[in-house]
DNA sequence: AAAAACTACAACCGCAATTCG
DNA sequence: GCGAATTGCGGTTGTAGTTTT
C-alpha cells in the first residue's frame, strides 16, 4: 500500500505559474509566513489551486527575496565546479555556499552549461545523450559521477598521500599548476598502474581522464561485489598493453571480485564521454570478449579505446579538451 | 522561410529523512 | 516506539525560445 498523496491531484493546477498565482503566494507569505506547513498553505490562499509542494518549490526557487537568476560569475563557476568535484551533486550544499542561488538553479546551470564547459561536449553528442537519457537509457555512467563520497563518507579514509589531486586546467597542466584551489581535499579517481607507463610521461592520459569523472562503482551499476579501496572508488586500474602505437588500452582490476561481470573494460563507464562517438558500439566487441549479459544493460558497451586516440602530449590534450578550461 | 536540432530553465516526481502526534 | 505526515533533495521531464541546417 503506497502513501496517500500530499494533495488531491485532481483539484490542483500543474505547470507554469501565472503572475497572478505568484502574486497570491508571495503576498500571503509576506503577510503571514508559511505557517510551518506547506501542505496546508495553499488551502489558506483564496483561489490558489496548487499543491503545497509546488508552492514551496515556487517560493524557494523563484519568489523569495534576494534570489539571483542567471549571470553566474566566474568565481561562482569555480566554486560550483570545485564543490562538485569534491562532493558530487549535493546541490543544496553547493547552493549554501552561493548566497542568492538555489539548488535548482545551480543544478540546471551545471547540467546545461557548466558540465559542457568542463567536458567540452559538442552539441550533437550532447543531444544524443539527452535523448538516450529520456528513453530511460544510458547516462547511468554520467550519473555515476555523482556523489564520489557516497560509499565512503569518511574523508579521512582517502589515501593521504594522494589527496591533493585536483582538476587541472589542461593548459596549465604543463606547469602542474592546479586550476582548482589546492586545499580542496578531493577523492581520488581510479588510478592506473604506475609501473606500466613511463614515469616521465609529462601528462598521463588515463590518470588525467580519471580525474574528469572516474566513478565509483555503486550498487546500482551492478558492481557491488567490487572491493572498494580506501578512496571510495573500486580498484580499477587501467594499464597499457601491447607495443605499437596501435596498442590497446585495457583495464585490469586489482583485488576485484568479478562475480558475474566478465568484461573489465566496463569499468571505464563514466569516462566514455571523453571519447568520440565512434567508440560506442553495440553488441559484441569483436575482440573475443563475451559481452553477452551486458548487452541489455543500461550501460552501453564500448570498443576498447585505442591508445592512438588518447592524447599523450600536452598539445594533444589541449586540442582534445580545448573547452575544458573554464576561463 | 521552414524544419530540425539544440538550449535553458521551470516544474514535476519519487524517495529518503525528519518531524509530529 | 511507531506510523503517518511533511519536508528536502536530486533526478528527470516538458516546453518555449533560440540557433543551425
- Overall mean pLDDT: 52
For the largest beta sheet, what order do the strands appear in spatially? 1-2-3
For the secondary structure, the number of strands is 3
Summed up, the domain count is 3
Order of helices and strands: HHHHHHHHHEEEH
Please give the largest β-sheet: 3 strands, antiparallel
Summarize the structure.
Keywords: DNA-binding, Nucleus, Repeat, Transcription, Transcription regulation. The protein is mainly alpha-helical. Helix content is about 30%, strand content about 5%.
Describe the structure.
The protein is mainly α and 327 residues long. The protein has 3 domains: 10-63, Arc Repressor Mutant, subunit A (Orthogonal Bundle), CATH 1.10.10.60; 74-115, Homeodomain-like (Arc Repressor Mutant, subunit A, Orthogonal Bundle), CATH 1.10.10.60; 120-324, no CATH class. It is built from 10 helices and 3 strands, in the order H-H-H-H-H-H-H-H-H-E-E-E-H. It has helices at 19-32, 41-44, 52-63, 74-87, 91-96, 103-119, 123-134, 140-143, 205-211, 314-320, and strands spanning 237-240, 248-252, 305-306. It has a 3-stranded antiparallel beta sheet with strand order 1-2-3, with no helix packed on it. The longest helix has 17 residues, at 103-119. Residues 121-314 and 316-327 have low confidence and may be disordered. The structure holds a DNA duplex (21 and 21 nucleotides).
Amino acid at each position: 500500500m503506497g502513501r496517500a498523496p500530499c494533495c488531491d491531484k485532481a483539484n490542483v493546477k500543474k505547470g507554469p505559474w501565472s503572475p497572478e498565482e505568484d502574486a497570491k503566494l508571495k503576498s500571503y507569505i509576506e503577510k503571514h509566513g508559511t505557517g510551518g506547513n506547506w501542505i496546508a498553505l495553499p488551502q489558506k490562499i483564496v483561489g490558489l489551486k496548487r499543491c503545497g509542494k509546488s508552492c514551496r518549490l515556487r517560493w524557494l526557487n523563484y519568489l523569495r527575496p534576494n534570489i539571483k537568476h542567471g549571470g553566474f560569475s566566474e568565481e561562482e563557476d569555480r566554486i560550483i565546479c570545485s564543490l562538485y568535484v569534491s562532493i558530487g551533486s549535493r546541490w543544496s550544499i553547493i547552493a549554501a555556499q552561493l548566497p542568492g542561488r538555489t539548488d535548482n538553479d545551480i543544478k540546471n546551470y551545471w547540467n546545461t552549461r557548466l558540465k559542457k564547459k568542463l567536458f567540452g561536449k559538442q552539441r550533437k553528442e550532447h543531444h544524443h545523450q539527452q535523448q538516450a537519457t529520456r528513453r530511460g537509457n544510458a547516462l547511468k555512467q554520467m550519473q555515476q559521477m555523482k556523489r564520489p563520497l557516497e560509499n565512503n563518507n569518511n574523508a579521512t579514509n582517502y589515501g593521504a598521500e594522494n589527496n591533493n589531486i585536483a582538476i587541472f586546467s589542461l593548459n596549465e597542466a604543463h606547469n602542474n599548476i592546479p586550476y582548482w584551489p589546492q586545499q580542496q581535499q578531493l577523492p581520488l579517481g581510479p588510478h592506473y598502474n604506475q609501473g606500466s607507463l613511463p614515469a616521465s610521461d609529462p601528462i598521463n592520459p588515463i590518470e588525467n581522464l580519471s580525474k574528469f569523472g572516474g566513478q565509483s562503482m555503486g550498487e546500482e551499476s551492478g558492481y557491488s561485489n567490487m572491493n572498494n579501496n580506501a578512496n571510495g572508488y573500486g580498484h580499477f586500474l587501467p594499464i597499457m598493453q601491447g607495443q605499437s602505437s596501435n596498442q590497446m588500452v585495457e583495464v585490469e582490476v586489482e583485488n576485484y571480485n568479478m562475480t558475474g561481470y566478465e568484461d573489465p573494460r566496463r569499468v571505464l563507464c563514466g569516462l566514455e564521454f571523453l571519447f568520440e562517438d565512434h567508440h560506442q558500439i553495440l553488441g559484441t566487441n569483436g575482440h573475443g570478449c563475451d559481452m553477452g549479459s551486458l548487452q541489455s544493460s543500461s550501460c552501453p558497451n564500448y570498443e576498447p579505446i585505442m591508445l592512438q586516440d588518447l592524447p599523450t602530449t600536452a598539445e594533444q590534450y589541449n586540442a582534445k579538451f580545448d573547452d575544458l578550461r573554464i576561463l
